[in-house]
Design goal:
By secondary structure, this protein is mainly β. It is built from two helices and 13 strands. The protein is 8% helix and 55% strand. A hairpin with a 3-residue loop joins strand 3 (61-71) and strand 4 (75-86).
Length: 247
């Protein structure tokens, strides 16, 4: 497992070479929820997470990926998603619609490999005239190989609804961005299979300070809102964060 995690770290370094931004998050979950801090083997609440993120549009659509690496007394786990939007008709009246394909997966020191997930569907996207506001909504088929419900029956075929947004305001001083996922995933240890996860970020962009135009540093917070995600029930967990955006 240590060798696999080391390999994941090397892959993350490779992605960092083409990243749009890199983020550092200090997680307050262990202090807020006692049960999340009782075991060092608990995956869901690391002490520190680094996130490498990229979004890049092109002639035929766009590519997005992120890689999370979690730390708690060393590397604790890693998770990544890569998604491609295909829109060969960008110059037509249907430019708001694209075909979405995605892969999600990861591993942790305590839990081993997470369930792979393969997704495909359609995305509606839009933006304001000056691109200061962007949004998208995706309706997706989600295939999770090998998953079973509490009765031991396979439930590999699922769905996911994803919303993503980004808003720059206060003359570029602040950015509010995030996503919300709602999906079905059967788990043998849970009597519910419907999961909600949202991560919402608020950033203060320090390159708006006079003389700091080339310092692409932002400071802020992320709040993770989840229901039946890692544990059953609702959690609201903030982080203290910093982000460097590459030119």
């Amino acid at each position: 497992m240590k060798k696999l995690l080391l390999l994941v770290c090397f892959v993350a370094v490779g992605f960092a070479a083409v990243a749009q931004n890199i983020q550092f998050h200090y997680d307050f979950g262990r202090g807020m929820y006692d049960e999340l801090g009782k075991s060092e083997g608990y995956y869901g609440r690391p002490q520190l997470t680094t996130t490498i993120e990229m979004f890049r549009p092109d002639t035929y659509g766009s590519t997005f990926f992120f890689v999370d690496v979690d730390y708690a007394t060393g590397v604790k786990g890693a998770y990544w998603e890569i998604a491609r939007e295909f829109c060969f008709w960008q110059q037509s009246k249907w430019d708001w619609l694209s075909v979405h394909v995605e892969y999600d997966g990861g591993m942790s020191k305590s839990a081993g490999s997470f369930n792979d997930a393969w997704l495909a569907g359609a995305t509606y996207s839009g933006h304001s005239a000056d691109f200061s506001k962007t949004w998208s909504l995706s309706l997706l088929y989600k295939y999770i190989p090998g998953t079973v419900n509490a009765d031991g029956n396979k439930r590999e075929h699922n769905f996911q609804i994803t919303g993503v947004w980004g808003i720059n305001f206060a003359k570029g001083w602040a950015t509010y961005s995030g996503f919300v996922d709602f999906w079905r995933e059967c788990r043998a240890w849970q009597d519910t299979s419907y999961i909600l996860l949202s991560e919402q970020q608020l950033w203060l962009n320090l390159n708006k300070i006079e003389g700091w135009e080339k310092i692409n540093l932002s400071v802020g917070t992320e709040v993770e809102l989840s229901n039946n995600f890692v544990d059953k029930g609702f959690y609201a967990i903030p982080t203290l964060a910093a982000k460097w955006t590459f030119d």
